[in-house]
């Protein structure tokens, strides 16, 4: 019996390999991607930075804009700036606590200018726009301005957008969209955010 199973397994794997190879052959297009990582679970920003780390590991040039991290200590910035990644962090420390809409709008516009420049820079292979979805939700940056900047970027540049509740326009223009679902999170059991894990 084990022999027959081994034989069946081998046949199944061969079929699977043929199907996968055919799909790999069919994928011929080469272009920079738009990726959206959204949803309520943990892992959106870290996924974005995972891709930046991959790109840096291949000697690619990367730019990062972080929209709501403010002045908090930031492990990704500490590491990646040393490796030559261009880094911009929104100035005010915007969080769900801030109440000064004018100051936040100004700060958002300031960092958005840097993003527009990065989205025209053909030397940048990957641009991460971390938590930009909130700027759309709050109306601090025009959605169509973001769409236009992304759509007119250099053909080989990839753009990663992270944040909860990504607007459907952003999902429409994306090539790859993942939604991270919250199954449980330590914070809900009263556990403090941890250095190295949460920031
Ligand atoms: P990470 O930066 O760890 O990848 P994220 O980008 O998916 O998380 P955000 O919504 O940006 O999540 O929130 C950032 C912070 O909030 C992180 O410290 C993260 O651990 C925490 N967090 C993420 N999801 C949840 C959740 N469902 N409940 C409570 N805290 C969360
Ligand atoms: Mg995040």
Automatic annotation (TrEMBL):
Known EC number: 2.5.1.17
Pathway: Cofactor biosynthesis; adenosylcobalamin biosynthesis; adenosylcobalamin from cob(II)yrinate a,c-diamide: step 2/7
Organism of derivation: Vibrio algicola
Protein name per Swiss-Prot or TrEMBL: Corrinoid adenosyltransferase
GO BP, sorted A to Z: cobalamin biosynthetic process; porphyrin-containing compound biosynthetic process
Cellular component, GO annotation: cytoplasm
Gene Ontology terms, MF aspect: ATP binding; corrinoid adenosyltransferase activity
Chemical reaction(s) catalysed: 2 cob(II)yrinate a,c diamide + reduced [electron-transfer flavoprotein] + 2 ATP = 2 adenosylcob(III)yrinate a,c-diamide + 2 triphosphate + oxidized [electron-transfer flavoprotein] + 3 H(+); 2 cob(II)alamin + reduced [electron-transfer flavoprotein] + 2 ATP = 2 adenosylcob(III)alamin + 2 triphosphate + oxidized [electron-transfer flavoprotein] + 3 H(+)
Keyword ATP-binding set for record: yes
InterPro entries: CblAdoTrfase_CobA, Co_AT_N_dom, P-loop_NTPase
UniProt keyword annotations, A-Z: ATP-binding, Cobalamin biosynthesis, Cytoplasm, Nucleotide-binding, Porphyrin biosynthesis, Transferase
Annotated function: Required for both de novo synthesis of the corrin ring for the assimilation of exogenous corrinoids. Participates in the adenosylation of a variety of incomplete and complete corrinoids.
């Amino acid at each position: 019996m084990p022999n027959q199973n081994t034989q069946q397994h081998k046949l199944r794997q061969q079929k699977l390999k043929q199907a996968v190879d055919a799909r790999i052959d069919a994928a011929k297009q080469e272009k920079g991607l738009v990726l959206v990582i959204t949803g309520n679970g943990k892992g959106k920003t870290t996924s974005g930075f995972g891709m930046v780390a991959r790109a840096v590991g291949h000697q690619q040039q990367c730019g990062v804009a972080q929209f709501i991290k403010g002045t908090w200590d930031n492990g990704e910035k500490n590491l990646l700036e040393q490796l030559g990644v261009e880094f911009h962090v929104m100035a005010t420390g915007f969080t769900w606590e801030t109440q000064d809409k004018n100051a936040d709008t100004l700060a958002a516009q300031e960092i958005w200018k840097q993003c527009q420049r990065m989205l025209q820079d053909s030397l940048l292979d990957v641009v991460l726009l971390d938590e930009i979805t909130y700027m759309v939700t709050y109306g601090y940056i025009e959605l169509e301005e973001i769409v236009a900047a992304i759509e007119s970027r250099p053909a080989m540049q990839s753009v990663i957008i992270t944040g909860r509740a990504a607007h459907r326009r952003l999902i429409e223009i994306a090539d790859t969209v993942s939604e991270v679902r919250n199954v449980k999170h330590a914070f809900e059991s009263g556990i403090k955010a941890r250095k190295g894990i949460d920031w």
